[in-house]
Amino acid sequence: xxxxxxxxxxxxxxxxxxxxxxxxxxxxxxxxxxxxxxxxxxxxxxxxxxxxxxxxxxxxxxxxxxxxxxxxxxxxxxxxxxxxxxxxxxxxxxxxxxxxxxxxxxxxxxxxxxxxxxxxxxxxxxxxxxxxxxxxxxxxxxxxxxxxxxxxxxxxxxxxxxxxxxxxxxxxxxxxxxxxxxxxxxxxxxxxxxxxxxxxxxxxxxxxxxxxxxxxxxxxxxxxxxxxxxxxxxxxxxxxxxxxxxxxxxxxxxxxxxxxxxxxxxxxxxxxxxxxxxxxxxxxxxxxxxxxxxxxxxxxxxxxxxxxxxxxxxxxxxxxxxxxxxxxxxxxxxxxxxxxxxxxxxxxxxxxxxxxxxxxxxxxxxxxxxxxxxxxxxxxxxxxxxxxxxxxxxxxxxxxxxxxxxxxxxxxxxxxxxxx
Length: 420
Ligand code: HSE
Hints:
Elements: E1 3-10, H1 14-34, E2 36-44, E3 59-60, H2 64-67, E4 74-77, H3 85-94, E5 98-101, H4 104-120, E6 125-126, H5 137-144, E7 150-156, H6 159-170, H7 175-184, H8 193-196, H9 199-212, E8 222-224, H10 232-241, E9 243-254, E10 257-268, E11 280-287, E12 291-298, H11 302-318, E13 333-334, E14 342-350, H12 355-365, E15 370-378, E16 381-388, H13 393-406, E17 414-418
Parallel strand pairs: 1-2, 1-4, 2-3, 4-5, 5-6, 8-10, 10-13, 10-17
Antiparallel strand pairs: 7-9, 7-11, 9-10, 11-12, 14-16, 14-17, 15-16
Helix pairs in contact: 1-11, 3-4, 4-9, 6-7, 12-13
The structure holds L-homoserine.
């Protein structure tokens, strides 16, 4: 006899609808592989007057019909945002339900409180879908690689910004066109600022840091830059120089401290992360026993994310007293990286005699040596793009300040790291 697991959904948008689709299409295959029969009992929605993949008697406006429904075993939070999602997760655990969530923003800010609530009520909380969509990364880190000490992790954690940069590169779409396409395909957050300003990737990096390094982290512990300062010229010049621009997230342990960063980075063509396109995510982790591992797959979208939600549901159904140990301590120091790296720099300039020489001299004065340089000027203005040998962030920042003081700039200069 199969174990029957009855689900209550909080939200029936992109991910919730994907879950209904997979259960109706593949429910019997899931049952024969796992011994678990899934039934969707209720779904909390904001409106009933649009087409829904569930019968109307299963839709409700009242969250209590989900929390206190006697037949519901697992509550699935796929509504996103902080409130009311956080309060609903706590209430569902309190009312004795297992919970599965895709909500990285809530976990990044309130993970400790939520896991304490789960422990207090002896319930499981699954969050595979919160990071990297369909890639079973949480399970790999918390189970498959549990025997490893991990010192660094680098990856592409936001599908929307990777999609935008890919389409600007491959199809020469404008930023706005590429963002609209990402929204249309259900990749972007309700507020896409979270995607393009690196906040979503930062939330995911915090979840991974708390899990992998068992260290409590906040947005303030991170260096964060989004993709909004990237101009099409950066993408195409990076290509001429042998690089592709990717939205990277990095967590690195150096001695007693951790460095957490989210920013667009030039990645060499031959690097595995350089080939990760569109809404795909990838994470490279180095375990002391396994060595380097790479996880790659769709990081956003209805079905990949719903697949991860379902994997948690089956896991809870099969192992109701198990669960991931979430116990981050506030012991680790966070430090800005002073490590040396190569840089890509762009200066939007007025074309005046000697301007390129002055930029090169300022860089030289700060000990920064140039490997590639290119000027693209139309009539009286344009951009100077430079790739440097390795330099420290403070050297680059000091040179940028000097250059801004001695050269007539038409806008903000840009500096991007190059992945070594
Ligand atoms: N907006 C997110 C992304 C969805 O683009 O990666 C998946 O978390």
